Amino acid sequence: LAKTTQPISMDSYEGQEVNITCSHNNIATNDYITWYQQFPSQGPRFIIQGYKTKVTNEVASLFIPADRKSSTLSLPRVSLSDTAVYYCLVLMDSNYQLIWGAGTKLIIKP
Amino acid sequence: GAGVSQSPSNKVTEKGKDVELRCDPISGHTALYWYRQSLGQGLEFLIYFQGNSAPDKSGLPSDRFSAERTGGSVSTLTIQRTQQEDSAVYLCASSERTGAYEQYFGPGTRLTVT
User: Fold this and answer.
1) CB neighbours of A75 closer than 8 A, spacing ≥ 6?
2) Which residues of chain B are within 8 Å of residue A36 when distances are taken between CB atoms?
3) Chain B partners of A32 at a C-beta cutoff of 8 Å?
4) In chain B, what residues touch A91 (CB-CB under 8 Å)?
5) Whole-angstrom Cα distance, residue B9 to residue B111?
6) Across B40-47, average pLDDT
7) Residue range B20-45: average pLDDT?
8) Which of B79, B94, B105, B113 registers the highest number of CB atoms within 10 A of its CB?
């Protein structure tokens, strides 16, 4: 049974780099990995998506090792406004099933 | 351009009543998703529509829940004979199509069943 697992919560401080890891042991060859951010009382917002190795955009990087059984969302130099819940999502290419993680509540302290 | 909109933003209903929640996706998006999010919890997938194909209803929690999408655009999620455990935020999202495409979420409808 496909499943994504991520830490329930994390704390960090302003200016630090934060890495959130998601485990997806049953990922298949063509499945994609996506991360979303959610603030209170808002819908989730897309951050980054990847398939293998490393993807970087203006807000984050996504590292995916060769076996693809995990992925790490990296947020450089976080600020207080990065306090949010971060969700890992695996999209199963075979049937378009969406496997959402339970979310990681990230708290950034001054 | 306009994002995904949902209405109403808040709905309070009595146990046993039926409710309808509406979602207006981004124009041109062929995929539409409904999720439920209980307080402090993650996203629970309910149903998705892709174009004119039969919807994937695999996440609907009971036969009291149904959804339709008219003309490939607006969608309505209906909950019949509401129960207190149906209280949650119902989120709608759309994407260009099903697959590895970014989902754009609406602000949600907060449903409270008293």
Assistant:
1) A17, A18, A19, A20, A59, A60, A82
2) 103
3) 100
4) 99-100
5) 9
6) 91
7) 94
8) B94
* pLDDT class of B55 with cuts at 50, 70, 90: confident
Q: Which of B35-39, B42-46, B61-65, B94-98 has the lowest mean pLDDT?
A: B94-98
Give the nearest partner residue to A43 out of B56, B100, B106, using CB atoms.
B106
Whether the Cβ atoms of residue B56 and residue B110 lie closer than 8 Å to each other: no
Contacts of B5 (CB under 8 A, 6+ apart): B23, B24, B106, B107
Q: Is A50 part of the contact surface with chain B (CB cutoff 8 Å)?
A: no
| Shortest CA distance from A42: residue in chain B | B107
- DSSP summary character for residue B56: B
Find the closest chain A residue to B110 by CA distance.
Answer: A41
Question: B93, A87: Cβ pair inside 8 Å?
Answer: no
Would the pLDDT of B1 be above 80? no
Q: For Cα atoms B54, B37, A28, give the angle at the middle one, nearest 5 degrees.
A: 60
